[in-house]
Write a structure and sequence with these properties.
single chain; 4-stranded parallel beta sheet; glycosyltransferase activity; Glycosyltransferase involved in cell wall biosynthesis; about 325 residues; Rossmann fold; transferase; elongated; Glyco_trans_1; alpha/beta; 14 helices
Length: about 325
């Protein structure tokens, strides 16, 4: 195995410790001569069987660089939609005939691809689902007092948290509106870049305005989530397998998610979380209130959420399925 990645990519030190050769490079655009030259050099010298590409720019450049090499191309897709037969960029990536398989991080993504094929192209077997595994030991919640120290939230107040950089489809307006329907002691903590959005203005007009807090972008967002009581994701489109929901579940924080994208795949309904119809204020408020008003159920559901990730989304399962795909494409048993 060899890896090409940016010099500051996470995991670089781990690759070196494992004895994996790392070459520094990054696709700055879909047509990047420098990265294409580096990929061709490594294909020529290392002669790999698989070229595994992890974002659209890398896919475009990797496909072009691999021309003339007998290498199988695997592409990764992490969001629903955004691919079109009318878009030339899509033909440079996921629709290109050189792509042997597209690993979809959620089955919702695979189903979207299959549904939107044109005259049965690409073939259905090109798209497979491999969930991205997480180890619960990767996450440690922040101490509860940080919520009071930084945001003035009383130590005994239940806190609903959501993480997102503002996009309309994230549904944060609905979450702010929902806060008015919660018990008076419940607070909402919003983490992420929301500058220039209408959210602050909406919060100021809310009857719950004194209980809505904006934390901005935080490097400790996952840990802050672990200090809260409920995680809410209201996104109604474009979601893959949302990492923020997984981070919450790993720390025993029960999630309430919209039935969109891969979010429902993470949850056993009414066991390890609650699923609500997208863009439905009444259903969202009811689900959150159900947990706000029942602390023992929150704790039980949070434990079930943690167990769900531990058993069904373990990294070992991701590795096993990926190696199985490599074996299938190459005929080489690497297990």
């Amino acid at each position: 195995m060899e890896i090409i990645c940016p010099e500051k990519a996470r995991g670089v030190d781990h690759f070196a410790e494992a004895g994996i050769p790392v070459y520094f490079g990054e696709s700055v655009s879909r047509i990047d001569r420098n990265i294409r030259q580096l990929i061709r050099e490594r294909l020529s010298q290392f002669q790999p069987d698989i070229l595994h590409l992890l974002n659209s720019k890398a896919i475009s450049n990797g496909i072009a660089a691999s021309r003339g090499f007998p290498v199988k191309v695997i592409a990764y897709r992490g969001v629903v939609g955004g691919v079109s037969f009318l878009d030339p960029a899509s033909w440079m990536t996921y629709l290109h005939p050189r792509v042997s398989r597209v690993i979809c991080v959620a089955d919702a993504i695979r189903q979207w691809f299959v549904k939107h094929r044109l005259f049965h192209y690409p073939p259905e077997e090109r798209f497979i689902t491999i969930h991205k595994g997480h180890d619960v030991s990767w996450y440690n919640p922040a101490p509860r007092h940080i919520l009071q120290d930084e945001f003035g939230i009383p130590s005994d107040a239940p806190v609903v948290v959501s993480i997102a950089n503002y996009r309309k489809h994230k549904g944060l307006e609905l979450l702010i509106e929902s806060a008015q329907d919660w018990p008076d002691e419940a607070h909402l903590l919003l983490i992420g870049n929301m500058e220039g959005s209408p959210l602050q203005g909406l919060a100021k007009q809310s009857a719950a305005r004194h209980r809505i807090h904006f934390a901005g972008s935080r490097s400790d967002a996952a840990a802050l989530t672990g200090a809260c009581d409920i995680y809410a994701l209201c996104a109604y489109k474009k979601e893959g397998l949302p990492k923020t929901v997984i981070e919450a579940m790993c720390q025993g924080v029960p999630p309430v998610v919209a039935n969109s994208g891969g979010s429902p795949e993470l949850i056993e309904e009414n066991v390890s979380g609650l699923i609500v119809p997208p863009q439905n204020l009444q259903a969202l408020s009811h689900a959150i209130n159900t947990l706000l008003q029942d602390p023992p159920r929150r704790i039980t559901m949070g434990r079930a959420a943690r167990d769900r990730i531990q058993k069904a989304f373990a990294p070992q399962q991701t590795v096993k399925q990926t190696l199985q795909l490599y074996n299938e494409l190459t005929g080489i048993n690497s297990c």
